Amino acid sequence: PQGVAVPYDYTFSSTTFDEGWSKYNANGDSYEWSATSNYVYSYLGYYGYGTESSDDYLFSPLFSLEAGTNYVITVNMPDNNPYMNEQTNVDVMFGTSNDGSGYTSIGKLEINPGGSSSISFSVPQSGDYKIAFHDISTPEQYDMSGIYLTSFSIAPDEGGGDTPAEVAEMPYSIDFSTT
User: Fold this and answer.
1) How far apart are CA 18 and CA 1, in angstroms?
2) Which of 21, 110, 164, 174 ranks highest by number of CB atoms within 10 Å?
3) What is the largest CA-CA distance in the chain?
4) Per residue in 50-93, pLDDT tens?
């Protein structure tokens, strides 16, 4: 299949993984990414019931990405969820496989209940890539914690900020003396 063009926005609102979204339970335990009508989530086990580390992937559809372009991924998280906390450990990655093999890490997802979390990246060569959320929390980290996502977006990173329209050539000097 051909990759989806960006920008792309998606709200998790189905009890199934649809529109190219998929999951993979790499360690085969009974905990994996799940979907509800309001969000997708992953957890190791409440109250310390989980005994193995998480090794669970949530995969996006394929996106057509260009080398040399910076992209920003933004996810939104529900508020008032007592299970989302700083102990949750989710690696954001890009790649092409259906099992996480060969993926490149972009960085760790910042947990921000009731808000959003963004991460920027670029790909080394143009092509079609999936974005993966790899839950790698350990039982010690995961007592009463998990990750919940309500929406996802990917777009070219416009950079923002106060970039001057014209850059002066260097060396550049200003005379502050008064006459």
Assistant:
1) 15
2) 21
3) 79
4) 566 778 888 999 999 999 999 999 988 776 555 555 556 788 99
